Amino acid sequence: MILKDWYCLHNPEETITPALLVSPKAIRRNIDLMIEMAGSVKNLRPHIKTHKTAEIINMQLESGIQKFKCATIAEAELLAQNKAKDVLLAMQPVGANIDRFLRLMKTCPQTEFSTLVDHPSILKKISDTADKEKMSVSLWLDINNGMNRTGISPNNHAFKLYKSMTASSRIAVMGLHVYDGHLRNTDFEQRKKDCDRAFQSVMDFKNSLEKEGLAVPSIVAGGSPTFPFHCLREGVETSPGTTLLWDAGYGNSFPEMKFKMAAVLATRVLSKPKEDILCLDLGHKWLAPEMGFPRVQFLNEDSFEQVGQSEEHFVINTNKSEAYQIGDIVYAIPQHICPTVAKYDYLQVVENNEIVGSWKVAARNQSIHI
């Protein structure tokens, strides 16, 4: 599951902690595996929300990937800066982001941008803004097939909305988008059944649209847990994101996917306040705290019981406290890598067990320029 000890630094005393270490070699292997699973780059549209980093975007571009998915205007701008040809903003723009999205299209005409819509009021606002600017906007209808977070259920209301999209002179209809992040059964066969069942509602809706003469050019579907299933579907673009860096949550839940751990936290023992207690410098500000414990998987150490985390501190119980001195470095894999990356200005690049440079997490904030 882990490239053998790539993260163990020869000179850890020179490293400021906490630090998020990344392995370019492991990332390249993950990109190659994504392409291998999909059969080609044709139907790959990887999400960049996990890494938000130009260097990883360029590694994918060098592998022939040209279509991307993102969650923010900043991520979309970063993709355009790095000459990605096709970018889907997979968050329905609302409020000021409608104007920002059109400004992005004007500023970066070399990139084809598209985004999502799931409600008539937003379709009208986008259409009206596009008409005012004398522009055309590419839209996907966002379908809710069970996650109940965003999207519109594939029913008559969705049919009317899609028909309204096709009727607007300012809208180029791209097709359907569906994210099924709720499908996470750890049993591979059951997860496949769940995915196929949920996706059937999307296909039934697509067929109903086409029966009425409404074209559905493409479908964008899924994230990392359902990537193994959607990547085999004809005419469906798949959008894995966590697969680029991987993490302990997905690694332990879906071991059959064979992606490599490409990001590891380096943290230090900050204090030994009591027998059998260690405190690390891995607080909320450096590690995503939205999940319960365990929030990391410690490497080469199975005696740590994670019991507390605050802004700057991470407290563990262990019967091996005497083996650690204050200042000792400890390595761990985040349980959830995506929000953890967003806490760092830079990723520390490791090759041959040395930090050889850093990569800016360039899209970690709401805006770059636009």
Order of helices and strands: EHHEHEHEHEHEHEHEHEEEEEEHEE
CATH topology group of the largest domain: TIM Barrel
Structural class: alpha/beta
User: So, the CATH homologous superfamily of the largest domain?
Assistant: Alanine racemase
Count the domains: 2
Mean pLDDT, to the nearest integer, reads 97
Q: List how many beta strands DSSP finds.
A: 16
Whole-Å distance between the termini? 39 Å
Q: State which percent range the strand residues make up.
A: 15-25%
Number of helices: 10
Task: Give the CATH architecture of the largest domain.
Answer: Alpha-Beta Barrel
Low-pLDDT sequence parts: none
Largest sheet: 9 strands, mixed
CATH level 1 class label of the largest domain: Alpha Beta
Helix content: 25-40%
Radius of gyration: 22 Å
* Coarse shape: elongated
Organism: Euzebyella saccharophila
Family: Belongs to the DSD1 family.
Domain D-serine dehydratase-like: 262-351
Protein name: D-TA family PLP-dependent enzyme
Account of the 3D structure:
With 370 residues, the protein is an alpha/beta fold. It has two domains: 107 residues, D-serine dehydratase-like domain (Lyase, Ornithine Decarboxylase, Chain A, domain 1, Beta Barrel); 221 residues, Alanine racemase (TIM Barrel, Alpha-Beta Barrel), CATH 3.20.20. The chain is built from ten helices and 16 strands. Strands 1, 9, 10, 11, 12, 13, 14, 15 and 16 form a nine-stranded mixed β-sheet that branches. The radius of gyration is 22 Å and the shape is elongated. The mean pLDDT is 97. Keywords: Lyase. InterPro entries: Ala_racemase_N, D-amino_acid_metab_enzyme, D-ser_dehydrat-like_dom, D-ser_dehydrat-like_sf, PLP-binding_barrel. Belongs to the DSD1 family. This is D-TA family PLP-dependent enzyme. It comes from Euzebyella saccharophila.
